[in-house]
Hints:
Blueprint: E1 4-10, H1 11-22, E2 30-39, E3 43-52, E4 59-63, E5 66-69, H2 71-84, E6 87-94, H3 104-120, E7 127-133, E8 139-145, E9 150-154, E10 156-160, E11 165-168, H4 193-198, E12 200-204, H5 208-220, E13 228-232, H6 257-268, E14 274-277, H7 284-292, E15 295-298, H8 303-316, E16 320-330, E17 333-343, H9 359-365, H10 369-377, H11 393-412, E18 421-425, E19 430-434, H12 458-480
Amino acid sequence: MKKDTIIRFSRPDFEIKKKHLSKSGKDESFLYGLFSKAKGHDNDIYICKQLILPDDNELKNQSPVSIEPDQKYQSVAYSLAYGQGLTIIDSHTHPFSQNAGFSGIDNHHGTKNAKYISENFPESTTMGMIVFGEGFDNFEAQIWNRKKRKFESVNRIEILGTPTTILVNNKQSRKQKINEQYARHLIIPGWDQGLLENLKVLLCGLGGNGSLIFDSLLSLGFGSKKGWIKACDPDILEKSNLPRIPYAYPEEVGCSKADIAQIHANNRTPHLNVCCYQKSIEENEILNIAKEANIIIGAVDNDGARQMLNSIAARYSIPLLDIGTEIIPQDSIYEAVGQVQVFIPGQTGCFVCSGTIDPCQAAMESMSKETETSYEKAGYVRGSNETPTPSVLHLNGVTSHLAISQLLKLLFDDNFKGTEFLHYNRQKTNLLTASISPNEECPVCGVQGYLGSGDEDIENALKDLSDLKNNAEFETAESSA
């Protein structure tokens, strides 16, 4: 089956691109961008990694009906693409059109340049073209298929971050009939039900927090058109889960949480595109699905899984929302807290540079069962017994619905900035919010990190993660000895 093609921008990159292309007013404008590539489950994704903005004197024949880059600017862009093995995509505008399309001249020059790149550049490099019409809410785009030696259409452009925009088939701005059950949503100022319908959401974890998130996504109508809801959890339902999963029943104990969630979705919202998997995020099928997501929600209970999700979010420019709750007994009293944190690649700091993830703890939690058993016998793994941790529905409920509120604020750009971190204290009945600034020295999202790198050098990245885990295991063993 032929994979569809997606072009993806972070919100900051798209705003820079839009500002540059708009400044020419009624004249056409032009720029190059360099893109990494990712192979997803059903799609090939081209992720914007670098914009190359031309000076005014590097564009020629600029008028309301034509535009052309000069040779020097084109040479710089092509050299950078060649040196980094990235795809080069040129973007220009048709400011006179509300339904943009390529002209015969566009296709003639594009085909000529694409053939040149195919014959002289690394295998990882190809060429693409985007033309935007008035308002930047309509487009035509295509990517050169080197094997077939022809352009193939791109039907989806994703601008991820806050706000999030999904452009599909030049129809994003056109009014579509809304399912009547969501009519009351539309009364809310700024609400965009069409965005939710076209959004792709991956939820990792279907336990106490994840099940409530899952049910909320169904209620809000995510994934009813060109989008989807996909969820994964490798675990089975236990009796102790019943008080915290509202759609689970006693006769389902021993069944997979994923199967139970799928049955619930099929019964409650059969019009949505929902698929649940009894798999973990480490498995290749889920990793390939994650690449295609527009938002990843982590309802996991360990730093090993958080570290994996954080890396995926950075590499594929996908916003990540993480939720966690904890009840901490202290003699006859206890502390009950919930936390929601959002990482928006290119806009906020990630979980590593913000200190959310403990690398040693993440390494321990990412061990294979065999390694963990051997370390337990040696006494190197502290707190590794099977004592269950306290958990209760109302704490999960408050925190998970705060997470949904944060998700909608992010998607609709509803006063989200500065609230990327949210902490709920049940005993004090208060909320604390904070911003998380990017750290240029972060090994994940910093200058020397792998932000937006797609599948580029993915084998080495996985090896580095494995080495980090092994080193952390060794250091923890030494410190415990």
